[in-house]
Design a protein that fits this description.
Helix 4 runs parallel beside helix 6, helix 13 packs across helix 16 and helix 14 packs across helix 15. Strand 11, helix 20 and strand 12 form a beta-alpha-beta unit. The strands form three sheets. This protein has a five-stranded parallel β-sheet with strand order 2-3-4-1-5. 46% of the residues lie in helices and 17% in strands. It has 463 residues and is of the alpha/beta class.
């Protein structure tokens, strides 16, 4: 079953229904569910589905030929003589709506160096007069962005649409484990990073603890070496990337701090981080209202599975190999989940705000949303606000704190947030929103209303 992806399916459906020649580039990181999305979309439609492999051009041409002939209803083991004759055959099939899917296109392009130029020629002339819808799909982000979408590619300008497939949000991720509590659904979302392949690994008929140990802390677990394997597939010098990701996962968020922790030069670190950003592993974000201030730029792990893995699995493999995984989990991981989930809860709260904003259910429309960090001029200490949403035209700001803890959220949290609001003195209208895993104290509830908004776990997780 395909969870989520309503927007992507609707977009593909609109493109398909145009009836004219279309060329769609679909890309995204590995395991994000691109093939499942395309397969679901193409179901019961006339489709040539070809997945390239890491083999030579002749072998890929043979597999492509088989896919074409199968769609045409021809029972033959023959192979087309070359790619031109194969595409010519496809052209003749496309007098009525036909989808041509080439999955793992980077493998094909590496095996057959001229394939992009050949495809360009057919897109420019022969295919334009047909009802063919081409979908090129790839997991190599840099290849797809540079060699398919980039201006130096022979295919540049030929696409009629492109779709970057992102990880699932909390609401869609929660559908994979319907039997779990709201809190455990949120933890699964954080541990999986919203990646469908990883979400499928969690069995909600068994305790969450067992799922975590089985997937992360067993030598046969799917996620035991997953980040390392992904880096080896995508990047050279994985050991340096390991160091950078571990530094970010364990608290280094500024470029200089990351460089110091890794022992690399700042300029070198910046280059490596750029590669990780392009892969969707690292986020680069400026403080809201100060996006151009490089000193306020922070780096974080966009992939929260990587965050958990580099905090708790990387460097602790001995505990797994030695057979102490369960005791290690109980002593080290169980308590660490609370801190890990603080960041995940913020992410879920951001999603909540974006959805509510699209439905016009917030105190005012947000035109920007982000985090904020600054220095208190009186105490000289650094202060943070978890989430800030602004609308400059309406002279309004929404200041939010997210508390993922067992203790009740009390009035002191609101007072602290209100004290920090002087940093936003330029905004006439200030609203304060507190998100809490636990209940709110009665004294805090008395302040609810007007510009103070309190949202518990049920509201946030069930929106």
């Amino acid at each position: 079953m395909l969870f989520g992806r309503k927007k992507e399916l609707a977009e593909l459906g609109d493109i398909y229904n145009s009836g004219s020649f279309e060329f769609v580039a679909v890309y995204g990181r590995r395991r994000v569910g691109k093939s499942a999305l395309i397969g679901h979309f193409a179901k019961n439609k006339r489709t040539i589905l070809f997945t390239a492999i890491e083999a030579d051009g002749k072998r890929n041409l043979m597999l492509f030929s088989q896919a074409v002939l199968k769609c045409a209803g021809v029972s033959a083991e023959a192979s087309f003589e070359n790619w031109e004759s194969a595409f010519e055959y496809v052209k003749n099939m496309a007098n009525k709506r036909l989808i041509l899917v080439i999955d793992e296109y980077p493998y094909l392009a590496q095996a057959e160096k001229s394939i992009s130029s050949i495809l360009q020629k057919y897109c420019d002339i022969a295919f334009k007069k047909t009802k063919l819808m081409i979908i090129l799909c790839g997991s190599s982000m840099s290849f797809m962005e540079n060699q398919v979408l980039g201006y130096k590619s022979p295919l540049y300008g030929r696409r009629t649409a492109q779709m970057k497939i992102e990880s699932l949000n909390y609401l869609d991720s929660a559908k994979f484990v319907p039997k779990y509590s709201l809190e455990h659904k949120a933890i699964v979302f954080g541990l999986s990073g919203g990646i469908p392949k990883y979400l499928e690994l969690f069995d909600d008929s068994i305790p969450l603890r067992k799922n975590i140990i089985r997937n992360f802390f067993s030598t046969s677990g799917y996620l035991y070496e997953e980040p390392s394997n992904l880096l080896k597939q995508e990047l050279r010098e994985p050991q340096k990337y390991n160091s950078i990701i571990e530094a970010i996962a364990t608290g280094a968020s500024k470029l200089n701090d990351i460089a110091t922790k890794t022992g690399l030069e700042s300029s070198v670190t910046s280059v490596y981080i750029s590669s990780l950003i392009s892969l969707g592993i690292v986020n680069k974000e400026g403080a809201i209202t100060e996006e151009t201030n490089k000193r306020k730029t922070l780096y974080s792990l966009a992939d929260t599975m990587f965050l958990f893995w580099y905090r708790h699995v990387f460097g602790n493999q001995f505990s797994v190999i030695s057979g102490n995984a369960e005791s290690f989990y109980d002593m080290e991981i169980s308590s660490g989940l609370q801190q890990f989930m603080g960041y995940i809860f913020e992410k879920i709260c951001r999603e909540y705000l974006k959805i509510q904003n699209s439905l016009n259910k917030l105190p005012f429309p947000l035109t920007q949303i982000g985090w904020w960090r600054g220095t208190n001029p009186q105490t000289k200490s650094e202060e943070e606000i978890d989430i800030v949403g602004i609308n400059k035209k309406q002279n309004s700001v929404l200041l939010c704190e997210c508390k993922f803890r067992n203790a009740k959220t009390d009035l002191a949290v609101l007072k602290d947030l209100q004290d920090k609001s002087f940093h936003f003195a330029d905004f006439a209208n200030k609203h304060f929103m507190l998100f809490s895993k636990s209940e709110f104290t009665s004294s805090l509830k008395q302040h609810k209303g007007n510009n103070v908004h309190l949202l518990g776990i049920n509201s946030v997780y069930s929106h």
